[in-house]
Design brief:
five-stranded mixed sheet; alpha+beta; four-stranded antiparallel sheet; Dna Ligase, domain 1; 16 helices; DNA polymerase, domain 1
């Protein structure tokens, strides 16, 4: 039996949750992300805001220029994660396998459960109905023979839409004259390469498949196959151990030239990375440091480690990397671990002084936190969990920047 896949995608998820919880926001251009005057981007926005040209990932200053009458809000990630868990519980009831690819989005394999397209249609309508009735939210659903086609189908009638693409030929007929961006994995950079070669539509891909492969190599072969409706990927349930890296970053509201402040911020970022790694019982064998300078030039530095993933050890390696980069104003700093495994090399979060591999003493997390308390008056005792929240982390970092 051929695959039958459903793709579920919430409509303007963050914004819709806020409107549900505050009906006074209904019908207004709501923009979730940074606030006007801050650095940052749009996380998502209501459909009313999209009519002004605002969209996800847009610079917040550009969003404000386009929509000065918009209502701007910081995201409440804890709330969205809680709603997401409710959504996925509903969706997972009706499938043989589920692949969550975002808080508000998932692929569902309903091949055996549905039996045929008619059965899949019934499941899709139940999902839409339960999502609306139980959570007060709308979703768009696509049913198709493949993952790529199902995602295209879910986007076809947004918001609150439903669409089917039963066969590869149906998919080809639908997208043949559309821009190459309709093809899964063709982002802005890839599209620009294709445009430069005179390839603007899916039909152009067919007619110039050798050129596409020559331009893009392995990715080009993949794109040519998708343009012909070929996609044999299976719905693969998400497992934390499949994650390739764990990271956390912050953007400063004003450029930072004080590298001692950057080191202090690395403490908080390392705590966040350690927290997530522990939550998923993962261990990294390398540390990365990411910087974006004031001129928007970005760099990434990394070094292999022995797999010790306390916040203190992550911090220590990140500082070593920081000490070897060009010192000029910084806009963004991030820390991560990579080369993950499920090894049981774990230590307590409040690490005491331990000997380093070269015989030097390692500064433990508890001491690092006490130093932050002394410098900034920040006392994390009893509420360290709050720092792991995106909004609290950013507020804390900004407080540190202003009070160093």
């Amino acid at each position: 039996m051929r695959q039958i896949i459903i793709h579920v995608d919430m409509d303007a998820f963050f914004a819709s949750v806020e409107v549900r919880d505050n009906p006074a926001l209904r019908g207004k251009p709501l923009i979730i992300g940074s606030l006007p005057g801050e650095r940052g981007v749009v996380a998502t926005c209501s459909y009313e805001a999209r009519r002004y040209g605002v969209h996800s990932a847009m610079n917040i200053k550009e969003a404000y220029r386009l929509c000065p009458i918009g209502i701007y809000m910081h995201p409440n990630m804890d709330k969205y994660r809680a709603v997401s868990a409710q959504l996925h519980r509903i969706w997972n009831t009706y499938c043989d396998a589920a692949e969550a690819i975002a808080l508000d989005e998932a692929y569902l394999d309903v091949t055996d459960r549905a039996g045929d397209m008619r059965g899949a249609r019934e499941i899709a309508q139940i999902i839409k109905q339960r999502t609306r009735n139980e959570l007060g939210l709308t979703c768009s659903v696509g049913v198709a023979y493949s993952k790529a086609a199902a995602k295209t189908a879910s986007e076809e009638k947004k918001p609150d839409g439903y669409f089917e693409i039963p066969t590869a030929q149906d998919y080809v007929n639908l997208v043949v004259n559309r821009d190459v961006r309709v093809i899964y994995t063709v982002g802005e950079r890839t599209a620009q390469k294709l445009y430069a070669a005179g390839i603007r539509t899916v039909r152009d891909i067919w007619e110039n498949n050798e050129t596409v492969i020559r331009l893009l190599g392995k990715q080009g072969r993949w794109i040519v196959g998708l343009a012909e409706g070929k996609d044999e990927r299976k719905v693969t349930p998400y497992r934390p151990q499949n994650v390739r890296s764990i990271s956390r970053e912050v953007t400063f509201q004003e450029d930072v030239s004080n590298f001692e402040l950057l080191k202090d911020v690395l403490v908080l970022l390392a705590l966040c990375v350690e927290h997530r790694a522990k939550r998923h019982a993962l261990c990294g064998h390398g540390v990365t440091l990411k910087l974006t300078y004031a001129d928007m030039k970005g760099i990434t530095r990394s070094r292999s480690t022995t797999g010790r993933n306390t916040a203190a050890s992550i911090y220590r390696e990140a500082v070593r990397l920081l000490e070897n980069v060009e010192r000029r104003p910084v806009r963004l700093v991030g820390v991560g671990i990579y080369n993950l495994s499920g090894e049981e090399e774990r230590q307590l979060i409040m690490e005491s002084l331990l000997p380093d591999s070269d015989g030097r003493q390692v500064v433990g997390t508890e001491i690092l936190l006490s130093e932050l308390k002394e410098r900034y008056g920040l006392d994390f005792a009893g509420h360290l969990e709050q720092v792991y929240r995106v909004d609290t982390l950013h507020k804390t970092v900004e407080y540190m920047r202003k009070h160093i």
